[in-house]
TrEMBL record:
<feature type="domain" description="C2">
    <location>
        <begin position="1"/>
        <end position="94"/>
    </location>
</feature>
<keyword id="KW-0479">Metal-binding</keyword>
<dbReference type="InterPro" id="IPR043566">
    <property type="entry name" value="Rabphilin/DOC2/Noc2"/>
</dbReference>
<protein>
    <recommendedName>
        <fullName>C2 domain-containing protein</fullName>
    </recommendedName>
</protein>
<dbReference type="GO" id="GO:0046872">
    <property type="term" value="F:metal ion binding"/>
</dbReference>
<dbReference type="InterPro" id="IPR000008">
    <property type="entry name" value="C2_dom"/>
</dbReference>
<dbReference type="InterPro" id="IPR035892">
    <property type="entry name" value="C2_domain_sf"/>
</dbReference>
<dbReference type="Pfam" id="PF00168">
    <property type="entry name" value="C2"/>
</dbReference>
Amino acid sequence: MKGYLKPDTQKKSKHKTAVIKKTLNPEFNEEFFYEISLSELSNKTLEVTVWDYDLGRSNDFIGGVCLSCHSQGDALRHWMECLKNKGQRVERWHVLTNELPRSVSHD
């Protein structure tokens, strides 16, 4: 899994989990944090992508989700709930889409 808080001009927001081998249905139980003001956060997009790691070949995109003020449905509701509850954990499950985010990095 890779996570980015975009835009990321200084390329410091990347969070990458360990590879979970031998499954196309990985479960990640990881937390990551960003030091950012609420006013900055409202203009950001959190991109989370999941990839199939193949040794010696290109990684295959499995799915992803983007959370921002420009999202729709559950993703937008989750983002707005996060903005309203500063400093608190707001957890929610999301169904990954098969659409690769436009600004995703493949490294």
